[in-house]
């Protein structure tokens, strides 16, 4: 049954993005807002908005029963969780199902299974997907030393329930493995309420490559190419691009086949991303995890394929199935996305909430801005600091870099500091231009010099 009225259970640019996608499909929208977001761009554009509660996320965007109650009372028959908040919490789709609301995302059992990294790793292995050499559950510091000796150092201790770099520690020898076990386990308990750890061989100069997937829940899964998300700080992505220009075509085909095989093996439904480490020196890739939701960086996949992934999500949740075949998905050109945060990169990325006094984004062919900001808009201190995503599309990587540099140069934001100057410095660096980057490049190479220049 096609969705007629969609509840948007998120905020910021993704809430606005979902409203626009639904309106393009002639679907009514109801946006959930906290008291701090009652005048947001998404609330103004939607057919209706509902104030969930106070600004604190725990009392608004992170309360699944409150959200589903609001969706039901507003007559919605579909719910889109966006990313972050409750998007990967199985309780939300379970509550939706109990109230006859179509959840725009995977089945709850699949979310549960993929959210546990050890279970996801086992599922990937069963589907024939390459894994980083590693361990099963590590139960003690002595186990960590023993497994580290077996795998070979350096190793990475990881939280099974983890994400976002929390509960992750690198160990270069047995003593560090024992100490790292206690540190990672404590972080995992504090962040996720679950201290279960496992270990993997650490790849010092890896690239982070991920495949955009879309499944119909009946075993049919398509890919929309891969993204290279190697520019990171503390495991948080800053710049994403598509395709991965550093990967040869034969590996790219294997990467796509592996991602599709994994998703098909669990009858994956809706949008998801299979993430991998790409060891450039060994010319091998290894499975990391699956993110069971739409990703922040999905626009670069849209730019190179021409498909609206959020509209496709909504259609699938309404029972329409996939609207395209794999043969329809053609890759064209190169796209790059910058996450623009209201942070002062020269002051250790200090968050900078406040009012934007001037907002003049760039315009022109191949330029897209996903943002909920405008002149006079307030950035509240209660949530993440992202104020928008600048996406460019060029004929190739060099053309995309040139367009991005020009777009940043013409982007005027006043009132709060943003990370735009940092992005300008990144894309002007010879290593980025020549594509000699890896997941630790930003922190090891650029940021130390960037800090000195800023001082």
TrEMBL record:
Tell me the enzyme class.
ligase
Q: Where is the ATP-grasp domain?
A: 121-318
Record carries keyword ATP-binding: yes
Keyword vocabulary terms for this entry: ATP-binding, Ligase, Nucleotide-binding
Q: Would the keyword Nucleotide-binding turn up in this protein's UniProt record?
A: yes
Q: Which domain of life is it from?
A: Bacteria
Write down a Pfam family by its short name.
CPSase_L_D2
InterPro entries found in the cross-reference section? ACC_Biotin_Carboxylase, ATP-grasp, BC-like_N, Biotin_carboxylation_dom, Biotin_COase_C, CPAse_ATP-bd, PreATP-grasp_dom_sf, Rudment_hybrid_motif
Its Enzyme Commission number(s) read 6.3.4.14
Its UniProt entry gives the catalysed reaction(s) as: N(6)-biotinyl-L-lysyl-[protein] + hydrogencarbonate + ATP = N(6)-carboxybiotinyl-L-lysyl-[protein] + ADP + phosphate + H(+)
Q: Which residues form the Biotin carboxylation domain?
A: 2-447
Q: What PROSITE patterns has UniProt attached to this entry? A: ATP_GRASP, BC, CPSASE_1, CPSASE_2
PANTHER family attached here? BIOTIN CARBOXYLASE, CHLOROPLASTIC, PYRUVATE CARBOXYLASE SUBUNIT A
Q: What does this protein do?
A: This protein is a component of the acetyl coenzyme A carboxylase complex; first, biotin carboxylase catalyzes the carboxylation of the carrier protein and then the transcarboxylase transfers the carboxyl group to form malonyl-CoA.
Q: What is this protein called?
A: biotin carboxylase
Organism this protein belongs to: Sphingomonas bisphenolicum
Provide the organism lineage as a comma list. Bacteria, Pseudomonadati, Pseudomonadota, Alphaproteobacteria, Sphingomonadales
